[in-house]
UniProtKB/TrEMBL annotation:
Its EC number is 2.5.1.19. PROSITE patterns: EPSP_SYNTHASE_1 (PS00104), EPSP_SYNTHASE_2 (PS00885). The gene is aroA. Pfam families: EPSP_synthase. This is 3-phosphoshikimate 1-carboxyvinyltransferase. Its main location: cytoplasm. It catalyses: 3-phosphoshikimate + phosphoenolpyruvate = 5-O-(1-carboxyvinyl)-3-phosphoshikimate + phosphate. Monomer.
């Protein structure tokens, strides 16, 4: 993909559906009694992997259109043993959440994924699921995919997670639906709460008690209608493009602004970007709004602590914004970046340096000194990581000559049509 520099971005666009919420709509719809209709579904490769896995367990998922689904729920105990390996592709969310569900099934299943998935730590979910009683084996003693699961006979437990991770929390809560008694999870920092919100929309009581988020075993799900908001993590690429290209004025319609996800809005505002929210409303239990962003003079800041899980997926593109901010930006407490689709501390730093940016890798984050006029002409690698691909495309918009991005296809994981959309807002 060759990205041409842009003077500015302007206009109004609708952002594709939220990836986290689209996955959950399919999974919870599959476990529910009745037919769940989903609108605004993200037809990205990751969410299609989730559909594929549930079809292999006997769930009929009708794709009425690219963004509309009818999920024919089989009920809490209606999944059947898959007769082939479940392939999650590049999707960590599919892998970890589905492991929670598989742990509760009285059958055998095997799960694998692409090269990146087979490197990513699964012990963070397989260990607590084993403690609950699931039999899980795999590479590295059950810590790396391929993994095989023989589930059932789970005991509820109180689990203190060492990481603030919605994938870990969700896997355990989902297993908790199949366990005896109550299952609760406590985390060091609050992670995104889409699972809790959507389980409630499906009629499952989710309680907060002594710092634990908990469900009771046997709580059944009742089919519902899900309206998926636009993905703030996808919107973030366009927010940053508009924030750093002088004269930009861009409106993004119907974007999810769930407070457990909205760290990027706070940080970009604090850096000096002009972001206005309008038409704020609730959609399927999730807050959404239209976002209007205009370029502003940006300044560097420090981003750390409890803010990190609230913008974890936006850090590569935040680093691009930081190259255009006056002074130093430091991102700390973000070790989790090392175990994403790529090691995003390393890949963000390596690729941004090709533009002449001053980026230093830290043990737990990045240090960026701005402002740098970005050089074009580079050949950039995505490391098969969709967010690195799009972050570098945003840097390319601000560069002084065209930039070539290799292995662009990974963008389809979360934002099919991104390149065309960027072309239309110049
Ligand atoms: C996700 C949770 C986050 C995030 C990922 C999606 C989810 O991962 O990075 O893109 O849908 O639950 P962790 O929970 O591992 O932090």
């Amino acid at each position: 993909m060759v990205i041409q520099p842009a003077e500015r971005v302007r206009g109004a666009v609708t952002i594709p559906g939220d990836k986290s919420i689209s996955h959950r709509a399919v999974m919870f719809g599959a476990l529910a009694e009745g037919v769940t209709s989903v609108r605004g579904f993200l037809p990205g490769a990751d969410c299609l992997s989730t559909i594929d896995c549930f079809r292999k367990m006997g769930v009929q998922v009708e794709q009425v259109s690219a963004t509309e689904l009818r999920v024919n729920g089989v009920g809490l105990h209606g999944l059947r043993e898959p007769d082939d390996v479940l392939d999650v592709g590049n999707s960590g969310t599919t892998a970890r959440l589905i492991l929670g569900i598989l742990a509760g099934q009285p059958f055998h299943s095997t799960l694998t994924g692409d090269e990146s998935i087979r490197r990513r730590p699964m012990g963070r979910v397989t260990n607590p699921l084993q403690e609950m009683g699931a039999k899980i084996d795999g590479r590295a003693g059950g810590k790396l995919a391929p993994l095989s699961v023989r589930g059932g006979g789970l005991q509820g437990m109180k689990y203190v997670s060492p990481v603030g991770s919605a994938q870990v929390k969700s896997a355990i809560l989902l297993a908790g639906l199949f366990a005896d008694g109550t299952t609760g999870v406590k985390e060091p920092e609050q992670s995104r709460d889409h699972t809790e919100r959507m389980l409630r929309a499906f009629g499952v009581p989710v309680v907060e008690e002594d710092g634990y988020t908990a469900v009771r075993g046997g709580s059944s799900l009742v089919a519902t209608e899900i309206e998926v908001p636009g993905d703030l993590s996808s919107a973030a690429f366009l927010l940053v493009a508009a924030a750093i290209l002088p004269g930009s004025d861009l409106t993004l319609r119907g974007v999810g602004i769930n407070p457990t996800r909205a760290g990027i809005l706070e940080v970009l505002r604090e850096m000096g970007a002009n972001i206005e929210l309008s038409n704020e409303r609730l959609s399927g239990g999730e807050p959404i709004a239209d976002l209007r962003v205009q370029a502003g003079a940006l300044r560097g800041i420090t981003v750390c602590g409890t803010l990190i899980p609230r913008l974890i997926d936006e850090i590569p593109v935040l680093a691009v914004a930081a190259t255009q901010a006056e002074g130093v930006t430091e991102i700390r407490d973000a070790k989790e970046l090392k175990v994403k689709e790529s090691n995003r501390i390393a890949t963000t730093a390596a690729e941004l340096r090709k533009f002449g940016a001053q980026v230093e890798e830290l043990e737990d984050g990045l240090r960026i000194v701005g402002r740098t006029k970005l050089r074009g002409g580079a050949v950039v690698q995505t490391h098969h990581d969709h967010r690195i691909a799009m972050a570098m495309a945003v840097a390319a918009l601000a560069a002084d000559s065209p930039v070539t991005i290799c292995d662009w296809e990974s963008v389809d994981v979360s934002f099919p049509g991104f390149a065309e959309l960027v072309q239309n807002i110049r």
